[in-house]
């Protein structure tokens, strides 16, 4: 990460109030079931995906979020709408939270990508900076998504909670950037299941991962250094 990027992404004062960011992946789509790379293709939720969003929204609403932001792609927007309906909050949509653009990979199944672009796929899995299908670098996805998240987090009240409704790849790269991890290691965070979420909190030394790929209410971490 460049020095300018670190400056742009500076969050809150270490002595300031604690705030929380919940990064929530959208519900199931038909292309998820087919293991087809969606990227920026605008695919809607399945009936199961809608039910997943409604169940998760009931849980997340109990955390009394203060703001909701979402990708403008319909699978994320529809997921966010379920939480908005329960909380009465407006959803701010931002194209900066869209999934990674993956060029010619988009619309292909996992097996088709390996068959047609095997070397490129293998290099990406090794952590090399690859423009999958001629699309975005993962660092470029973080460059557009992480500032959106932080800009809205800075507007939270003391002890406030921001819900970010986005996509698996974008959430992973955003978490990696906010935690200050080297991009080579972002893949180690692992993916999110449909309608699961990760929780970041502000600690004394920066952002801290409190929950990952959760589908139940976050619980306090007690004695984690014991």
Model description:
With 226 residues, the chain is an alpha/beta fold. It has seven helices and six strands. The chain has helices spanning 3-8, 30-33, 47-61, 74-87, 110-125, 138-153, 168-179; strands spanning 20-25, 67-70, 91-93, 161-166, 197-203, 206-214. The chain has a six-stranded mixed β-sheet with strand order 3-2-4-1-5-6, with helices on both faces. α4 (74-87) links the parallel β2 and β3. α3 crosses α4 and α6 (138-153) crosses α7 (168-179). The longest helix is centred in the middle third of the chain and has 16 residues, at 110-125. It is globular and about 50 Å long. Residues 1-16 and 222-226 have low confidence and may be disordered.
Distance between the termini: 32 Å
Helix content: 25-40%
Most strands sheet = 6 strands, mixed
Rg for CA atoms: 17 Å
Structure described in brief:
With 226 residues, the chain is an alpha/beta fold. Helices cover 37% and strands 15% of the residues.
Which terms would index this structure?
226 residues; six-stranded mixed β-sheet; 7 helices; 15% strand; alpha/beta; disordered N terminus; 37% helix
